[in-house]
Every structure is written in structure tokens, then in C-alpha cells.
Amino acid sequence: MANYHRVSFWDKKAYCLILCFLCWLRFSELVKEMDRVITQGFVLIFLLQGVHSRTLRSESNTAESGQKVTVNTAGEQVVVDNGIIQLTFSNPAGLVTAIKYKGFDNVLNERTKNRVYWDIVWYEPGQVSQTDFLIGEKFKIISQTSEQVEISFSKTWDTSKRGSTIPLNVDKRYIIRRGVSGVYMYGVVERLKSWPTVTMDQTRIVYKLNATKFDYMAVDDHRQNLMPLEADRNLTDGSAAPLEYKEAVRMVKPKNKLFKGQVDDKYLYSMESKDNRLHGWLASEQRVGFWIITASNEFRTCGPVKQELTSHTGPTLLSMFTSTHYAGKEINTTYASGEPWKKMFGPVFVYLNSAPSPDLMWTDAKRQLAAEVKSWPYEFVKSEDYPLRQQRGTVQGQLSVKDSFKSKSKLNEEIAFVGLALPGEVGSWQAETKGYQFWTQADKTGTFTIANVRPGTYNLFAWVAGHIGDYKYEREITITPGKEINVGPLVYEPPRSGPTLWEIGVPDRSAAEFNIPDPDPALITKLYANHPNAPEDRFRQYGLWDRYSAVYPKEDVTFTVGVSDYKKDWFFAHLNRKTGGKKLQATTWKIVFNLKEVSQNGNYTLRMALAAANTADILVEVNKPPSTKPMFRTGMVGRDNAIARHGIHGLYRLFNIGVQTNLLKVGDNTIYLTQNRVTSIFAGVMYDYLRLEGPSGAKQ
Ligand SMILES: *[C@@H]1O[C@H](CO)[C@@H](O)[C@H](O)[C@H]1NC(C)=O
Ligand SMILES: *[C@@H]1O[C@H](CO)[C@@H](O)[C@H](O)[C@H]1NC(C)=O
Ligand SMILES: *[C@@H]1O[C@H](CO)[C@@H](O)[C@H](O)[C@H]1NC(C)=O
Ligand SMILES: *[C@@H]1O[C@H](CO)[C@@H](O)[C@H](O)[C@H]1NC(C)=O
Fold first, then answer.
1. What span, in angstroms and rounded, lies between the C-alpha atoms of 141 and 120?
2. Which of 60, 81, 203, 440 has most Cβ atoms within 10 angstroms of its Cβ?
3. Could you tell me where this protein is found in the cell (predicted)?
């Protein structure tokens, strides 16, 4: 430790100064023999850096050493300390009120009472929604040794509380371990069978940090930056100007000029569950990092590509467990009276570290993430609702794809996601919010292992980027402790009725491959502008929906098969056009394609896969503009809001549309797609993929 403090003086600035000095010596050519000295200087710097990273490593790998964990329950507080980190909890409410670490008496924001708290947004049928903060009523030490302390803040529900608090029993748990620079948090919620019907829209933990000290945010390798202040978002004092929805603002008079003219919006930092494992904030001056590490997705809902919030201006961090973000009310968690439920959310790990630079803190946090993933399921959790490794099961198998108009593939470049979720229809996992889900990515041969599955009954689902549709294994799978199941070779036959006549895009449940326009220059988030490492982040800019009217002021998209390129000529979202002021107009896109012959042996099929939909209604017609009675219409579809929230996908939908032979002709044909609901600038769809198939006898 002492060593660490000595070395920490050598931060980046110091290295730079020394380097400059040495270079200057060289240039001045004062002393040729100085070369030797200079070389020694460089060597010295390397050595210091080496010592440095070693101290960093040893600091976080000393689980067996360090001070004993102590608990102090004086008055209305509980204080748990392991010598590295000290946590203060309100008793019995169970909010974390202070985290003492390194130079900080409290890394949390002392201007607010709610610093680290749980909440659930809920309502009974017919009520307006309200927020329950899961305030504890009873404190208990679950286990206490010199190695580890687990504490609980719980509350129980009874009908006398009906209407005012959420009908759930709640147990919030915190684990502090010897030598570990952080705290594990989880919560178990339970409802009894007879309790009233309730809907829960959002379940999460919120963390609020000291706003004057935490200034830098990192959510992945390239999405990292200095951040604006909460005060820079203030509309009342003119620091910011409002934008199209309340979460997004344009900073006009930020404290740091760097952000002037930029957009701030918490949805800029969303991530898919499969990637949402580490995010956090740094206090760059104090060189302290605060990280949320989520070692497993088992308690998250709606599968591996559900998008969620991470960290944002505040400084705020979130552990999102359930929400309707990027999906809509279709994925609410509704329990009818008569339906019991029990679920554990977490454990998540709040990790604190310290290093001379943001880069080193990020690297160390990633190392810690890898360590947490490796030790999942944690053997130290003292809850009957948390099965340990030997109480869990494993499912193995091999998935291949048989597409009758392509050869059977061993996946190759395709990515197969295979998962277990509560039993349900094909594809139901993406709206499933009540159970645990276990997902993995198969390797190139389609081989997969789903490890550490909690006992229970599941369906095995899969989907493969590169193919439309969803796979479901016909038999239910029951996991008992220690059980290992090999389901053997599985074959997914995606929907197909004939050869591909043409296709637009890639069937991967995302619209990222289409034309993503440049943002309005007045509404740029610089983090995503011309970022050389992350062209895939282009879609995250604010306001791209408004670019449709700029790129297509009069004519709509016309895509000519064989001539057009979907990367350039297919706009990423099908929206209304602005025709001055707030006036909007329905838009009709055309796909023009040539047929040398029209087969009479069966009908054609249009596959229309949507990556997102928001209060849209798509009308489909062939060789004439859609009328009120089109050949096909989706009807009002979707409330995923992915267009407004710069998500490039929401829920996946596949429409299989029969096209009668007599509608087609030899020569040029046109398919018309009209977005017919003119209700808002956010109304529209993002297509994932379109394909026209001939009848099975038609020529490819
Ligand atoms: C942030 O930390 C500084 C230094 O520890 C302290 O003076 C300040 O009051 C803290 N601010 C908040 C909002 O917690
Ligand atoms: C915004 O500015 C107004 C006017 O200065 C002030 O009263 C208010 O407290 C500020 N709001 C926030 C959230 O800082
Ligand atoms: C919640 O979801 C269920 C299932 O999708 C649906 O039937 C119900 O209408 C939804 N509830 C609300 C309030 O939207
Ligand atoms: C084509 O579709 C129409 C309408 O669904 C149906 O009546 C007809 O039998 C189909 N033709 C063939 C050859 O399958």
C-alpha cells in the first residue's frame, strides 16, 4: 500500500514532463553522452510503470489479506468496514448513505437523500403508476465472520398496505468481503398467490455520485468521455434548450465550453444486455473509479439484445433489472391475482478502484469484470434463493441451419444465440419478464454450452443472425441440481417457401446496415461524430428521425433491385415527412424489381422483418399505391420508441406476406410500403430485412 502511494505521484502528467525534458535535452545536443542518461531515463519510466501496475493488481487480489470486516450498528445507521472501503446504511431503510474510499469521506452525492436506492414503478389496474423505493423495515445480520458480512434490510406486505406500497415482500442484501474493494448487492422480491393484480414497469438500483468530483464516464472501450454537469441540463436558467423529448437537451451555456452546442441524453449511452456488464464514472482529479459490474444476465429479462440504460449525466449509474425501454408496455411485468412470484435481482458488484489515469482505471475495471465472471455463481452468497454452482445444471448441443434454398450451413460467419427462458411460444423470450434467462453464443460449428442454469423448467430458444425467424426446441427442459443435458444436434429451418428473388439488408434484427444519415450539425454528440473506432455508433446521434425530411424533401425512398445499394439507398427508418412546421405526411416507399417470367405454380412470398416499430401501420401493395384496403397491412404496431431513443432496434417482428401470382407481371413490378399512421415524428418502423421469394418451382 505504502509503495502504491509513493508511486501514484508518477501520473501521466509527470511522465509527460519527464519525457519532454529528456527530449529537449536530446534536441539541444548539449551533451552527446547524455544519450546514455536519456536511455536510462526511459528505462526508469518503464520500471516505474511496471511497479505501478503490479501494485494495482496486488491491491485488488488480496481477498485473504487485509483488515477484518466489521459491523457497527449504532443508532439509525449500520456501518460496515473492511479497511479498504466503508459503507454506511440507513437503518432499517437500507439505503446506502455513504461510501468512504481513498481520499473520499463519501463518494456519493450528499446533496440528495437518495444516493443509492432501489425502486420499482408499479400500479394496480386502473391506478396511475407510482414509485416504491423498497424502504426496509427490519435490519438483520445474515452472516458475520472476519472474512465477510452479509446484511439484510427487509419489509413485508399485508393487505392493510394495499394501494400505498407495492404488494411485494422485499429483502435487500449487501455483502462486504475482506480485502475486496466493493460491495455486492442483490434483492429478493416475492408476492403471494392471493395478493392483488399488479403491473411493474421498471425495477432498478440507482447510484448517485458526488457531482463536483466525478467528471468522466466510461461505458465501453470507445464510449468514454468527460461529461457535462447536471446543472448544464437546466432549462430554467437557460443553461440548456429543450429538444423533442424531456430526457434530451441541447447545452447552450455549459460550465465547460467543450459541451457547448452538444446534446445530452441518457439514452445516448444505452447498451444491449449481452454487452452491459461494466460501466461507471471516474473522479479524474482524485483518481477514483466507481463501477457497476454485472457478472451474469440471468436475472435480466427479454433476452440478450434487450437494450437498457447504463450510466448518464448526474453523475448517475443504473442497474436496470426490468423496464419497458426499447420495447414498450408489451413487456410489462403483470401478475394477476392468483399468481405467486419470487425472484432474485443480482448480485451486482459495485467496484471502486484507484489508478493514475482513466485508461488504467478502465483496464483494471475490465480485469475485475473478468474475475467476477469467472467466479459466477458466487459461492459466498448466503441466500436460499441463490443456487450455488453444484446446485445448477448445464445444457449442451449443436445447432445448424437448414435453409432449403441454401445449403445446410454450419453457421460459419453467422452468429447463433441460444438460450433458456420460461416456456412459451416461439420467440416469446424477447417479451418474457418474469423468470430467469440463460443465453450464450454458439461457436462457428454451432456448438453451445449453457452453464450455471438455475433449477427449473425452460424452453430452449435460438435465433441466428443471417437468417429470419426464431427457433424453439420442441420439448421442455427441466433442470435439477447438477444435471447435465445434451440435446444433441438441433436443426433450425427458417421460414422459406421458394428461392430468393431479391433481398434488402441483413437479417440480424438491427437496421444498422442501412443508410444512417449525418446528424444535424447543430445537434451533434461529438463522442459519436467521426469516431474512427466506432462507425457502428453512427446511429446513436440525436435527432436522426428528422433527417428523413432533409434527405427526402419531396420524393420518398425508391429502391431498384440490381441498381440500388441498401447501405446508401435504404433509409434506416421509415418515418413521416415534415411538410413545414409540425405538419406531417404519410410516406410511401417503393421497391422496383424485374421479373423475366411469372410462375403459375404457387404464390410468391414477401418476408418483412422489422427491427423496431413505434405506433406505425405499414400498408403493403403490389403494382399500385396502397388503398384503404391494401393487399396487407400490419395494423397499429409497436411502442418500442427505439426511433426517438437512438436504439437501432426494439422488438423483432416477422411478417410473412403471401403475394398472389396474378398481382405480378413480366417486366418491372413495384412493391409499395406506406407508413400510414401520421401521429408523431417518432411514428414509424425500422426494417431489419426484406426478401421476395418465388414459389418453390420458380427460377432463382
Ligand atoms: C464532493 O466532495 C467534496 C470533497 O470531498 C465535498 O467538499 C463536496 O461537498 C462533495 N459534494 C457533494 C455534492 O457530495
Ligand atoms: C435551475 O435553475 C434555476 C434558476 O437558477 C434554479 O432555481 C434551479 O434550482 C435549477 N435547477 C437545478 C435542477 O439545478
Ligand atoms: C402487459 O402485458 C400483457 C402481456 O403482453 C398485456 O396483455 C397487457 O395488456 C399489458 N398491460 C398493460 C397495462 O399494457
Ligand atoms: C395463391 O393464394 C391464393 C389466396 O391465398 C389462393 O387462393 C391460391 O390457391 C394460391 N395459389 C396457389 C397455387 O397456391
1. 25
2. 203
3. Secreted
Q: 240 CA to middle of ligand 2, Å?
A: 11
Q: Which residue has the cell 410500403?
A: 673
- The three state secondary structure string of 571-633 is ECCEECEECCCCCEECEEEEEEEEECCCCCCCCEEEEEEEEEEEEECEEEEECCCCCCCCCEE
Cell of 645: 431513443
Quickly count: other Cβ atoms within 10 Å of residue 193's Cβ: 10
CA of 309 to the centre of ligand 3 (A): 22
Ligand 2 lined by 234 (C-beta under 6 Å): yes
Residues ≥6 apart with Cβ < 8 Å to 27:
none
| Alpha carbon of 239 to ligand 2 centroid (Å) | 10
Q: Whose CA is nearest to atom 11 of ligand 1?
A: 210
C-alpha cell at 538: 453512427
Backbone conformation region of residue 627, classed left if phi is above 0, alpha if psi is from -120 to 50, else beta: beta
Atom 13 in ligand 3: residue holding the nearest Cα: 329
d(CA 594, CA 549) in angstroms, rounded, equals 29
Q: Quick check: CB of 287 below 6 Å from ligand 1?
A: no
Provide the CA 430 distance to its chain's centre, in angstroms: 14
For 165-204, how does the pLDDT look when each residue is reduced to its tens digit (9 = 90+)?
A: 999 999 999 999 999 999 999 999 999 999 999 999 999 9
Angle value at C-alpha 620, between 695 and 655, nearest 5 degrees: 65
DSSP states of 332-394:
-EEE-TT--EEEEEEEEEEEEEE-SSHHHHHHHHHHHHHHHHHTPSPTT---TTS--GGGSEE
Is residue 18 predicted with pLDDT exceeding 60? Answer: no
- 2 contact partners, CB below 8 Å, separation of at least 6: none
